[in-house]
Amino acid sequence: MPDPETGAERWLSIQDELLRSLAHTISNRLATISGMAGLLEGGEVPEARMLDGLRQAAERLEHALQQLRRLPRRPDAAPEPMLLADGLDAALELVAEHPLLRSRAVGREVVGDVLPVRAEPQAVVHAACVALLAAASRGPGALVVSLETVADRVYLRVRREGPADADLAVPEGEIDPAPLTDAGVLAWLLAASNGHAVAVPHGCGFSLPTLAAARRRGG
């Protein structure tokens, strides 16, 4: 049984990792802007190329700040109708600069009609981050995210592609604690959304009730 307290601690650890990645990105963007500003201090008319570079650096800085605002948990958040694909898109942006995801290919599989769900949007973004990072930690290789509706629930699964021997080794006689840790943090993040962690070979996943199912239940 996943331990909610352990799940909360694990999320704080993941949040710190994402915060460090974003802080590094913001620092780089500020250094670029500062360097360009120094070149303009001489009073010369700037070249169009320099102005374009300054504009791009400012846009990337603004994007990084937007991701930073997605990190905190919202205590007043409540479940609402949403598309799981939207939460996945936001999560992919949030983890893009994390060392485990940087420059790693992420494919997507959509199986049939993926129905809307009722869930806390921020919690779903965070849960998708957990699933992406959990699969990436299993070893090298591209990641594949699948979205699928099965009965009254919508599933998001992330798996790592690659040879089986690329998985992190677990000594004989010991149990790999990663799946239990993943399940714990997902259970904690998605508790108010009636979300469930699901087992995925070489990865991690979760499910959420469809909007129709949540309405039937009175949610």
What are the salient characteristics of this protein?
7 strands; 219 residues; 17% strand; alpha+beta; 47% helix; two-stranded antiparallel sheet; 5-stranded mixed sheet
Please render the helix and strand layout as text:
Layout (H helix, E strand, L loop, with lengths): L3 H37 L7 H22 L10 E3 L1 H11 L11 E6 L5 E3 L1 H16 L6 E8 L2 E8 L17 H12 L6 E3 L4 E7 L1 H6 L3
Parallel strand pairs: 2-4
Antiparallel strand pairs: 1-3, 4-5, 5-7, 6-7
Helix pairs in contact: 1-2, 1-5, 3-4, 4-5
Major sheet strand order: 2-4-5-7-6
Unreliable spans are 164-177
Overall average pLDDT: 84
Shape: elongated
Please report the total strand number as a whole number: 7
Description of the structure:
The protein is an alpha+beta fold and 219 residues long. The protein has six helices and seven strands. A five-stranded mixed β-sheet has the order 2-4-5-7-6. It has a two-stranded antiparallel ribbon with strand order 1-3.
Gist of the model:
It is built from six helices and seven strands; from the N terminus they run H-H-E-H-E-E-H-E-E-H-E-E-H.
